[in-house]
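Provenance

Sequences were taken from public entries as deposited. Structures were produced by running a predictor on each sequence independently, with no templates supplied. The record for ABC transporter ATP-binding protein from Sphingomonas turrisvirgatae is shown for reference.
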Amino acid sequence: MATAPRSARPGSPRLSPILDGDAVIRVRALRNSFGEQVIHDGLDLDVRRGEIIGVVGGSGTGKSVLMRSIIGLQVPDEGSIEVFGEPVLECDPVEAIDIRRRWGVLFQGGALFSTLTVAENVQVPLREFYPHLGQPLLDEIAAYKVVMTGLSPDAGPKYPAELSGGMKKRAGLARSLALDPELLFLDEPTAGLDPIGAAAFDELTLSLQRTLGLTVFLITHDLDSLYAICDRVAVLADKRVIAVGTIDELLELDHPWIQEYFNGPRGRAAVTSAATAAEKAQGV
Ligand SMILES: Nc1ncnc2c1ncn2[C@@H]1O[C@H](COP(=O)(O)OP(=O)(O)OP(=O)(O)O)[C@@H](O)[C@H]1O
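Predicted structure for ABC transporter ATP-binding protein:
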């Protein structure tokens, strides 16, 4: 199924606010540093319920550090972070577990355990959060998640080393969906995939987001993904989020990085491929 470029939908002519009322993630005045190196300073961002938000920025601007801060793997120097309305930096361990079970994460490269099969990988979060579940139910849930991500059922007993790059991403996605999350974090999910594999992964993400009503926080360098599936894009530069909006809205800004990124040769190629996908979807 080809997908129309979502940024082409008619939208507000104004740039979306960085701060938003119905936010699933709310980051305020975030500061992160490593020694002398300041990564974020005064970073604000709201992620709306049910959207796919693309997070872009030059290499090293702190996209992954931002994601790690939100999911609690990086303790910031300053700032506040709310997820589902809960202050994740201040909650007690029991509350933290309750929040963590409502999100799934696909780390860069998939981060599968190499000594476990695909099915066993999917079962890891289930065992962690629901230790009382019996093996037959674990097997059943894992088999369902494997198929849900477009893998064939016989991928379940395979080890990561026996999978292609695209299959590993899908297996990682299956694991991130193990707990039926409301919120999905994807860190460069299409990196290393060929264009066809990347487009297929985008379509899978979009279809899961629509079917399951997910909110998706998508870190990517892939312009095709931004055009194909993102509702809004957040741009990291100068240690903060400098703008959030649809691609059309961002293009109205004259920030040099934004213009170079979206209007450079790769940006123009992505526009062409999104237009072609839209025509195919409409049967033109
Ligand atoms: N644990 C760490 N210790 C020291 N420095 C770190 C650590 N984690 C990240 N950094 C530094 O923080 C900066 C931002 O890293 P991050 O991985 O978030 O960038 P990014 O925007 O995701 O980059 P890319 O697009 O290349 O993946 C980099 O300069 C990186 O070297």
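The mean pLDDT is 86.
Strands lie at 23-34, 37-48, 52-57, 78-83, 86-87, 103-106, 183-187, 215-219, 232-237, 240-245.
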